Structure formats: C-alpha cells, structure tokens
Amino acid sequence: MYRYDEFDERFVRERVAQFRGQVERRVDGSLSEDEFKPLRLKNGLYLQLHAYMLRIAVPYGTLNSRQLRQLARIAETYDKGYGHFTTRQNLQFNWPKLKDVPDILDLLADVEMHCIQTSGNCIRNVTSDQFAGVAKDEVEDPRPTAELLRQWSSLHPEFVWLPRKFKIAVTGAEHDRAAIKVHDIGLKLKRNAAGDVGYEVIVGGGLGRTPMIGKVIREFLPKDELLAYLEAVMRVYNSDGRRDNKYKARVKILVHETGEDEFRALVEAEYAKLDGPTINAPADEVERIAAYFAPPAYDALPETSETLAKARADDAELDRFVAQNGFAHKVPGYIALTVALKEIGAVPGDMSAAQMRAFADIAERYSFDEFRVTHSQNLVLPHVKQDDVPAVYAALKAAGLASANAGLITDIIACPGLDYCALATAKSIPIAQSIAHAFADPARQRAIGPLPIKISGCINACGHHHVGAIGILGLEKGGRENYQITVGGDASEHAALGERLGPGIDAEDVPGAIEAIVDTYLAEKEGEESFIETVRRTGAEPFKAGFATFIESRAATASEAAE
Amino acid sequence: MAKDHRAGSKVRGDKLPAILMASHLLEGDTVFLTDGDWTRDPSAAKIAHDAETAEAMEVEGKAAAAANLVIDPYLVPVELTDAGLPVARHFRDAMRQKGPSVHKDMGKQAEFQPLG
C-alpha cells in the first residue's frame, strides 16, 4: 500500500499544526462558532447531538495493522472504546472533545492518516472497490488512480470552496462494487478496442434529496489524461454549479439542469482550453505511486487447498462462513474474506478497540498486513492463503467477528441516524437491529439469499437507501418517526433507484413489512433468481400489493386493540 | 451554510413550559441552563413556565454563546413528570437528554437519574 514520502509527511503535519492553531483561537474566543464551523468541517470535525464527531479518512478503504492499532489506542484514550466504519469507507469517533482533537490528529499523522477533506464543500475521500487488486474481473487495480486523485485533490487551491461536497469513486472491475453511478464522478478503468487502458467517466450521479444515476460523459479517456480532464469537469462545476440553494448545489443538479449533451460540450470546451501536460501527473510520478500497489509476494500454490476442503467438511460453521463470506482471489490458493461487522443485534459498522487489536493481528499475520473497509460497513482480508482459513476463522470467531452473513438480509447498511446525528429525522440503527433479530435464523437467511437492505435516518441518504434492494428512509411525520420503504434499488453496474411501496409506517411495523416483502419475493421468485433479479423482472407491483395487505392487516389489528 | 435541522422548534401549539439546551464548546456535551450557570444533568435544568422567563433564558443563552461557552442554545418545550422533571416533547431533544438509544451505557442515561 501507499507510504508517505517526505512531502506527504510534512503536508499532513503542517495541516495538523494549522488546525491546532484554529482550535486554540476558537477556545480563546478569537474565532466565533460561525467562523470556526467551516474550518472544523474541512478537518472532519462535526458537532452532533451528544458530542463532537471526528471523521477520519481511510483512503479508498485501505488500512494496515499499525494504523488499526493506533485507531484502537485513540478509541480508548480519547473516545469511548470503539469506532464506527461508514458507508464512505471512513471511520468515525463519536465522543472526542474539542481540546483533544489536535492531539488525535497528531496520533493519526504518526501512522500516515488524517481527516483532511472528510467534510466540507470540497473533494472528499476517494472510494474504491474493496476487492481492488484481488478480483478476477479487474482490468487494472483502481488504487493507484484513487491515490493519484487523493494527492491531486488534497487542498487543491482551486477546489477547496466548491458549491457543495464532491465525491469520486473508482473501480477497475466489470462488476461495480464501488457504486460509481451514484457518485459525483464515477471512474471505471476499461480497455478500448486497441487494448489501451483508460477510463469511462461518469458525472452527476448522487443520492440525497434528489437521487440521480450518473451520465457517461466520456466513453473512453486515455489514462494519462485523467487529471486534466477532471480539472475541466471541476472547473465547469465550480463556475456553473448553483451556490444560491444548498439543495440544488450538487453537480448532479447542474448536469440535470444543463442537460447531458450540453454539459459534455462545456467540459470538452474547457478541456480544450487547458494545457494538459502541465496538469496531468508526470509518468514517473504515476509509476512511483503504482509501485506501492504492486502485488504482495504470493506463494505459488495449487488452485484449491486440501487443508481447507477437509476443514470445511469437518466443520459446518466454517463451511458456511467460507461459502458466504469468501470471495474468489485471482491468485491460485488464495481467497479474500469479508468480515461482516454485522453480528445479530450489533450496531452496523461498529468495532471495539479490542476487536480492532485482534483484527490487526489477524491482518498482519494472514493477509500481508493489509485490510479493506467496504462501503457496506464491513471489512475485508484481501489476501488470505486458503490453507490458513481455518486458523483465521478461529481467530475471527474468538474476537466476535465471524458473522457468516455477508450480503444477506442481516448484512444491513445503516447510517448513525437520530442516535447520534444532528441532521437525522429518525433513528436507523435500531431499525437495522430489529430486522436482524427478525431474520436471525442462519438457515432462513441463506434461503432468502442476497438481499442488501439500506437504511437512512434522513433525506440526505448516508445509508444509501435509494440503492438498497430494500431501502428504508426514516422521516418525521406528525411528531413521530415514520419509515418509507422502497424496493428495486441497486448500486451496481445495473444502478437503479428504488420505488416506494406505499405510505410510511411506524418503527415497530418495519420488521413485519420486511417479512411481507420477503414473502412476496419467495412467492414470485423463478428458479434461482435473487431478490433484485425478481424485482427487476416483475417490477414493484406485486411488492406493493403484498405491502398493502400488510398495512391492512396492521390497521385491522390496531382497530381490534382499540375496541 | 444552511442552519442545521432543529426539530425542537417544530413542536406544535404552546411552547411552554420550556428548558434551554445547548452544546458545551469544549466538551461538545449537551448542557442545560440553570440559574446563572449550566449543568450537564437534565434533571437540574431550569424550567420556564411563562414567556417572560423563557425570553430571559434565551437572552442568557445567546450571551453564553457570544462568550464562547456554549454553542447553539435553543428553547426546548417540555412536559413535566409527576416529580416535576422536564421531559422534552420532541423525540430528538429527548434523545439529547438521554444519550444514544443503542448505547444505554453512554451519555446522560449512564451518568444521571432518568427523568421519568
């Protein structure tokens, strides 16, 4: 993975010193809250319902054991002993004190981490495929591109006060695990007819109050033109994006209001004016970055492991874990393992300091000292020898990290919601917990198959509800929390926005409604169809009917109770 | 930047009785106005039963914000328990009086007597 050079180290340390000065001036009263707020947000520091919250960047979701141990230390010293992995592959601490934040930033800098641009109207942490460098369907590893973009976008003087926040995702694989069609810019590494590697450039996707699927504005951009072309996109957005209305300020609105063709023409016109060679990264710098992502020193192994096959035959739990959480590795004899932070009843994405330390040991010993954070709030051990899987499973189990539900109905994405967030209109974590409890039976989960449920506690959609196969949006209605349910959302290459099934319902009715939706799926399912495939074929109508029946039965029960 | 969503003010009808809630600048913790000071204990919050007191508390809150002691002070409509303790009428403010519902071991609920 990437290691800081002298320049990176100085850059991050200077930013820590600058923020320390800003905090000092806030504490001594030289800065008012109105003055300080945009400054603290630029460094990932929010003020939430109960405390400050610090969001730490995990560039393209890649971490090593030393960094995780440092996060465990910070969690125990300055927080309440845990951290929370987010849907943007970052980590949040929910209880830091303002005066401690500069010291936390210094500890982060010690392990090449920071909070730069994890909030504010700037280019945020670049996200990527959690199986980068692992997946068989990959044209090229997306991480060197993501790292290049991180360096280019960090405190880029022209793009630090954009109309609104800006999120970029990169994938190198055919199957999109990075949700590139619902980002401000999505990049897909591809080959053209001549066999050259370049990018498909997608602009104007996004979720939030106005969800949109991004538009392809360049079918093929030669790889070495990336930065200049993106600079052209950013210039058009920076100049023409709306600053009069926060809710219409994202680039998706600009693309939508300008029109796809006109927007493309504006970008191409801007691009033609730019002096590409002065903007694009020099080839030796691109190579320097790429060298950090060279494959680890894999052993030459047979395709499959007899040790693992025997262990799976002897241990049904291990067998289920590998079947559900294992991901095929491009190198023979290796496997990637998803470690779902989704034990039944747990808070999605939460990890205790003890678990961090245990997991750091596992990653160091069994996965070339590297692991990934996924946008589904899970972790991945990317390079595990199949022979080592039984030992890894035992170690994960001892740390309470061996939940065999990756991708199943209990592997739920949930934003922090009203339990923490100052913007939330309803709780989301307890909804995830109640659904997980209702579907806790592992055999039943497997019978239902892959079913991503995504929950947001407000319209801003941090829980990505629009692209959940089942999406749940918590709102306030008449002084109560109320939940709207959608089906058919998809964050993959088949990107689609979910369709609402009917009126909003109370929190206690959500698990029952999900049962009704699952029953509809199982009744409508043809052959081996997954939930989303069935919805794609049937449309939302049968699900609306099943939902309506559920609502009627609930109303009948309520009126009986009233009598 | 637009102001953060503030649900407390959405309570319909009479806004009294009320307490004044804010975030402590250094700690980030939720604090409540008492007689001339701030407390972290939700049971110790001063209660305004009339408009004049509420207005005076709001003025006091604004002064504390200007003095960089607290952030975002606002009046929170409450209902009184039989013991006379103030429970926020809006669920968002009630969450701030207690702490996260998913972590009963954290926040005010872990440190102070429950309100009701």
Automatic annotation (TrEMBL), chain A:
<feature type="domain" description="Nitrite/sulphite reductase 4Fe-4S">
    <location>
        <begin position="410"/>
        <end position="545"/>
    </location>
</feature>
<protein>
    <submittedName>
        <fullName>Nitrite/sulfite reductase</fullName>
    </submittedName>
</protein>
<keyword id="KW-0479">Metal-binding</keyword>
<feature type="domain" description="Nitrite/sulphite reductase 4Fe-4S">
    <location>
        <begin position="119"/>
        <end position="272"/>
    </location>
</feature>
<dbReference type="InterPro" id="IPR045854">
    <property type="entry name" value="NO2/SO3_Rdtase_4Fe4S_sf"/>
</dbReference>
<dbReference type="GO" id="GO:0020037">
    <property type="term" value="F:heme binding"/>
</dbReference>
<keyword id="KW-0411">Iron-sulfur</keyword>
<dbReference type="Pfam" id="PF03460">
    <property type="entry name" value="NIR_SIR_ferr"/>
</dbReference>
<feature type="domain" description="Nitrite/Sulfite reductase ferredoxin-like">
    <location>
        <begin position="347"/>
        <end position="399"/>
    </location>
</feature>
<keyword id="KW-0349">Heme</keyword>
<dbReference type="GO" id="GO:0051539">
    <property type="term" value="F:4 iron, 4 sulfur cluster binding"/>
</dbReference>
<dbReference type="Pfam" id="PF01077">
    <property type="entry name" value="NIR_SIR"/>
</dbReference>
<dbReference type="InterPro" id="IPR051329">
    <property type="entry name" value="NIR_SIR_4Fe-4S"/>
</dbReference>
<dbReference type="InterPro" id="IPR005117">
    <property type="entry name" value="NiRdtase/SiRdtase_haem-b_fer"/>
</dbReference>
<keyword id="KW-0004">4Fe-4S</keyword>
<dbReference type="InterPro" id="IPR036136">
    <property type="entry name" value="Nit/Sulf_reduc_fer-like_dom_sf"/>
</dbReference>
<dbReference type="GO" id="GO:0016491">
    <property type="term" value="F:oxidoreductase activity"/>
</dbReference>
<feature type="domain" description="Nitrite/Sulfite reductase ferredoxin-like">
    <location>
        <begin position="52"/>
        <end position="110"/>
    </location>
</feature>
<keyword id="KW-0560">Oxidoreductase</keyword>
<dbReference type="InterPro" id="IPR006067">
    <property type="entry name" value="NO2/SO3_Rdtase_4Fe4S_dom"/>
</dbReference>
<dbReference type="GO" id="GO:0046872">
    <property type="term" value="F:metal ion binding"/>
</dbReference>
<keyword id="KW-0408">Iron</keyword>
From TrEMBL, chain B:
<dbReference type="Pfam" id="PF11011">
    <property type="entry name" value="DUF2849"/>
</dbReference>
<dbReference type="InterPro" id="IPR021270">
    <property type="entry name" value="DUF2849"/>
</dbReference>
<protein>
    <submittedName>
        <fullName>DUF2849 domain-containing protein</fullName>
    </submittedName>
</protein>
